[in-house]
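Write out the bound-state structure for adenosine-2'-5'-diphosphate.
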Amino acid sequence: MNAPAKTEEFAVQNPMKIPDGVYAETVLAVEHYTDRLFRFRMTRPAAFRFRSGEFAMIGLMVGDKPVYRAYSVASPAWDEELEFFSIKVPDGPLTSHLQKIKPGDTVLMRKKPTGTLVLDALTPGKRLYMFSTGTGIAPFASLIRDPETYEKFDEVILTHTCREVAELKYGFDLIEEIRNHEFLAEVVGDKLKHYPTVTREDFSHTGRITDLIESGKLFADLGVPPLDPAVDRGMICGSAAMLKDTKDLLEKAGLTEGANNKPGEFVIERAFVG
Ligand code: A2P
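---
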């Protein structure tokens, strides 16, 4: 028999030594959208509980060291699998490796999820805006597939702004999936509105979301009144500059920022990176 005699020997021979106290999950599917974007699905540990909209630390062994990065869980809390939507950074410490994963590979996940883009951090309202740019759509991919979102709000507006049309595909696929889903289609009904825009190409809607809020075009296109703190709630996820500029506009409209321990009229995910 060729079994290693000692554990230490086995560890040396085994290329994927798993650090203590983290989950090691199996990649189930990978889909590449552009040379900058991909999504993957992996197994979900039975004990892993999270609230839709939260993020987890996802990692890989790079050499003999684990490398982690914050990732919003893109799948809803009820899903048996976990989904993530990722950027590919050519020299990124994690994403340069993560973009090469294939079904059957192992991905690490730290055990505790966290985050502010959760329904509990908002005071009750009627209309929920989810403002996203790029992979910032990920926490909203979770929330728009969670029935609780539609129990709490009469209308859910997902805005997604990218540089190019090809980068919007993940969002379009999500909406399509919901419309065709056995149970979600009925729960969601006509409450969900998708507002995709691009900034560096021609498309049906163009421009930064901040400009579209400021000019009022967003509201005119959607056929809704301007932002009103009495009924409107917001969640923001995107680059640092986008978070700041969108936050300023919501505050100008009279909405105040909330947090897990102090629900408010809008929330921001500051852990998000590109
Ligand atoms: P733009 O093309 O005008 O820079 P990125 O890929 O750089 O994260 O950008 C994703 C999208 O977010 C792009 O459409 C980009 O528009 C937009 N964006 C970048 N900065 C801001 C900002 N401060 N406010 C609103 N949108 C922004």
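---
Residues 1-14 have pLDDT under 50 and may be disordered.
Residues 2 and 265 are 63 Å apart (CA to CA).
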